Amino acid sequence: MRRATNADRNLVVDILVSAFEPLEDDNSINFIVRKDKKRLKRLNLLMGYLFDRAMLYGEIFISDNDNACILFNYSNQVKSSWKSIKLDINLAINCLGIGRVFKVIKRINISKSYLPQDDHIRIIIGGSNAASNGNGTAARLMLEIVKEFKGNTLPVITDASNPDNVKLYEKLGFQQIGIEESLGYPIYYLRLN
Q1: Which among 52, 71, 49, 50 has a CA at the least distance from the CA of 138?
Q2: Percent of the chain that is helix, strand, coil (3-state, to 5)
């Protein structure tokens, strides 16, 4: 496992787009990104946005074989700045569209209700490229991350809509702290530490 640098932006975006583009089931990405002829472009914009925010407010871990990644934010580092506002506006205009901005704000507000008020670490997104899906690369990376944060006193929070991912998180020591179903699909919130 290694920490990403800005030079890894294209790699991380490619991994995440490859992981989420083929998914048909209801999940947070499909909730945000329309399934139309511009979907691939929008997915690239969204994953680039998530990379940029993670580099601003957290860090990104990449598997040794460069096939999986996980993006984090540290709550005590997240602050509005001109750069973050510019990123948000670019995402709203070029990826979401004005109509979906309100859906995203609703999703953000729901997530906030499950987050600790104190400092915490938030897993924003993770995935493995489609070619390595099912070979355990993402699970091994997550196991390394759990070991990395084992001595950490801050809670690590994540969410998942896929029950298989929930089971994986639980095997790694995460505990379910809630489930939200008001958006038309289940979102399971989990906590480590």
Answers
A1: 71
A2: 50, 20, 30
pTM: 0.89
- Calpha distance 64→140 (Å, rounded): 10
Q: What is the DSSP letter of 7?
A: G
Q: Which own/partner contact pairs does 174-183 have at CB distance under 8 Å and 24+ positions apart?
A: 177/114, 178/114, 180/110, 180/114, 182/110, 183/31, 183/106, 183/107, 183/110
> Could you report the per-residue pLDDT of 78-122, keeping only the tens digit for each?
888 899 999 988 888 888 877 788 888 888 888 888 888 899 999
CATH architecture assignment, domain 2-192: 3-Layer(aba) Sandwich (3.40)
Determine the residue type at 178.
G
Q: State the residue for tokens 């940029």.
A: 52
DSSP reduced 3-state for 175: strand
Q: pLDDT tens for residues 29-45?
A: 877 777 788 888 989 99
Quote the pLDDT of residue 134: 65
State how far the alpha carbon of 67 is from the alpha carbons of 37, 118, 163, 184, in Å: 26, 33, 22, 31
Q: DSSP readout, 61-125?
A: EE-TTSSEEEEEEEGGG----HHHHHHHHHHIIIII-HHHHHHHHHHHHHHHTTS-SS--EEEEE
Q: Which amino acid is at 83?
A: K
